[in-house]
Amino acid sequence: MSARNPDPRRVKIHRPYTIVELAATLGIHKHTVGRWIKQGLRPIDSARPTMFRGQEARAFLEVKRAKAKRPCAPGEIYCFKCRAPRKPAGRLADLEVLRPSAGRLVAMCESCGTMLYRRVNPTKILAGWGNLDIAVRKAEPRLSDRAVPKLNAVLRGASST
After folding, report:
1. How far, CA to CA in Å, does 47 sit from each of 11, 15, 31, 35?
2. pLDDT (mean) for 77-87
3. pTM tops 0.90
4. Which end of the chain has a smaller Cβ tally under 10 Å, C or N?
5. Cα–Cα distance between 50 and 93 in angstroms, integer?
6. Which CATH class is domain 8-68?
7. End-to-end CA distance of the chain
8. Are 86 and 109 in contact (CB under 8 A)?
9. Taking residues 104-112, what's their average pLDDT?
10. Could you give the CA distance from residue 89 to residue 7 in angstroms, rounded to a whole number?
11. Residue that wins the pLDDT comparison between 55 and 123
12. CB–CB of 116/88 below 8 Å?
């Protein structure tokens, strides 16, 4: 997990932490823990050094993580540029079937025009995807799935004379 999104499971619930220990456990800067105090992370008491119960620190991080989630409604795909769930432009999406149980929805964001991708199960795709117009296509075979791999020289039309 990155320092931008620390993993609450790294905090032991039966252990007290100082600001420096909590920051080291989560791989973040000690000033970040100071900001969390202003956002509602409660220390054990007002004595120095400032101590936190592991259980309260973990609960604070789990609540913080839950608030940051942006679940997609049926017919929406998360756009990383907009940082929000968006509907595909024109309600059009392509379904690339990779395997019988794995596929990828490909669409374009209606707000910014960025390509949107989402892993899906092709057998379940038609059940709960709102009113999207989905075109099904078979994905290009992977290099390892080809009988004879294509070489770049062959694709460019170069000859070996």
Report:
1. 22, 17, 18, 18
2. 87
3. no
4. C
5. 53
6. mainly alpha
7. 52
8. yes
9. 89
10. 35
11. 55
12. yes
Strand positions, DSSP E, 26-156: 51-53, 77-79, 84-86, 92-99, 102-108, 115-120, 133-138
DSSP state of 27: T
- Burial class (CB within 10 angstroms; exposed 0-12, middle 13-18, buried 19+) of 10: middle
Structure tokens at 36: 């969390």
Return phi, psi of residue 68, to 5°. Answer: -80, -15
CA distance 77 to 116: 7
Is pLDDT above 90 for 126?
no
Alpha-carbon gap, residue 105 to 140, rounded angstroms:
14
- Of 50, 51, 67, 49, nearest to 8 by C-alpha is 67
Amino acid residing at 123: T
pLDDT digits 0-9 by tens, 128-146: 666 778 877 766 666 666 6
For the packed helices 30-39 and 19-26, what is the interaxial angle rounded to 10 degrees?
110
Please state, in angstroms and as integers, the Cα–Cα distance from residue 130 to each residue in 32, 77, 88, 103, following that order: 41, 12, 11, 18
Give me 108's structure tokens: 């374009």
Q: Domain locations in the chain?
A: 8-68, 77-145
